[in-house]
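Input structure tokens:
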């Protein structure tokens, strides 16, 4: 099976490597060509255009930046894909996922929305959590593909459901990473040993992925992006918009979004989400 993979950034490059390790032939395309070309040494086939990437592919996979990038990609993918399955793994708009799903039907293509969680570590280790919306029959056909990239694979429901699940995920992340940051600020202000405190609380009721993975990064001033602030701002805005459309008021999400918007305005958009600690320094 040949996969046309579009988007070889921090997440996508590792996902491609895991597909290759699992025996898939993979075409790769990225707007910044060097990021895709770098994967040739791993066995990927570099393509200069998006059309070249999908014209002989059985399945197309996208993981790009913003919803408008997703739309632009699928405007090209749908009329040019050789196969009849496409998977969007970008965190994007649930309503756009539904629109692309319907548009794809006219090309006899079944599209799954399958956003992921787990950051660069999960992408590298092949342990991503994958949340899937779309036709269940198509999901079942793609299960082996998902297994090459992730460990926790869940079918959520109809088109758009995967994106709604990811919105819930990002709401949880927002509150959690802000709480880790505030706990660190508290410990520092009180003048106690941050490492001892974090070791004491990490395996109790306060333990979490954010505490275990981003907590040490905050303590070590490591701001390398496993997940960009600019993309987290995009995700939280999407979640807030969906909530407001249903007259749902999410105060914690609003507060954390405001904090990250401030970071972005101060020029930190290309840093990892753990750089929230800069607000407290």
């Amino acid at each position: 099976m040949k996969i046309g993979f579009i988007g070889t950034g921090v997440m996508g490059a590792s996902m491609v490597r895991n597909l290759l390790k699992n025996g898939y032939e993979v075409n790769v395309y990225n707007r910044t060509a060097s990021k895709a070309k770098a994967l040739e040494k791993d066995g990927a086939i570099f393509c200069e255009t998006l059309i070249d990437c999908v014209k002989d592919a059985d399945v197309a996979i996208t993981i790009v930046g913003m919803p408008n990038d997703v739309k632009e990609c699928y405007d090209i993918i749908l009329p040019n894909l050789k196969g009849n399955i496409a998977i969007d793994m970008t965190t994007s708009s649930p309503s756009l996922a539904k629109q692309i799903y319907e548009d794809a039907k006219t090309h006899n293509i079944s599209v799954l929305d399958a956003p992921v969680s787990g950051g660069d570590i999960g992408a590298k280790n092949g342990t991503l959590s994958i949340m899937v919306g779309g036709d269940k029959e198509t999901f079942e056909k793609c299960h082996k593909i998902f297994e090459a990239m992730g460990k926790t694979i869940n079918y959520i429901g109809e088109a758009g459901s995967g994106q709604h699940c990811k919105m819930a995920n990002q709401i949880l992340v927002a509150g959690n990473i802000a709480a880790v940051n505030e706990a660190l600020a508290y410990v520092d202000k009180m003048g106690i040993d941050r490492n001892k405190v974090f070791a004491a609380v990490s395996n109790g009721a306060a333990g979490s992925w954010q505490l275990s993975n981003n907590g040490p990064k905050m303590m070590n001033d490591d701001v390398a992006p496993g997940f960009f602030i600019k993309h987290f701002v995009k995700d939280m805005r999407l979640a807030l918009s969906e909530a407001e459309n249903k007259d749902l008021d999410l105060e914690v999400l609003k507060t954390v979004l405001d904090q990250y918007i401030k970071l972005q305005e101060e020029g930190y958009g290309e840093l990892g989400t753990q750089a929230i600690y800069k607000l407290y320094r």
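The chain is about 55% helix and 15% strand. The chain has a mean pLDDT of 97.
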